[in-house]
Amino acid sequence: xxxxxxxxxxxxxxxxxxxxxxxxxxxxxxxxxxxxxxxxxxxxxxxxxxxxxxxxxxxxxxxxxxxxxxxxxxxxxxxxxxxxxxxxxxxxxxxxxxxxxxxxxxxxxxxxxxxxxxxxxxxxxxxxxxxxxxxxxxxxxxxxx
Length: 145
Known about the structure:
Blueprint: E1 2-3, E2 6-7, H1 11-17, H2 38-46, H3 53-56, H4 60-66, H5 71-86, H6 90-105, H7 121-126
Antiparallel strand pairs: 1-2
């Protein structure tokens, strides 16, 4: 393949020569030596969410339950929050709350929702998607399995 008269036969080597992989986690680099597993890398990344301290300290369960309008919503959100807590995903919920606030503040439009995430009523209440999973009787286990 020719680009501007230059023969490119080893794009990985060229990328390495120009330092394009320097900021990649080791397991994503083409020459990785398996020092860091995917699970280890994800664990480190998830322990360092880049968001304001107010969101990091937020009582996310109280926040979500405060968004509920009736007993049925409280029951559904309470049950889902237990599932999120079992999976140690409260930091993710805090980050999504921050992300939605930033998008709303900056008038950024995002999709109505897709895939299994629409089964989560908690994500609906946080504004991550616009599909009322209680109305459509979607099982939250579809999302959190």
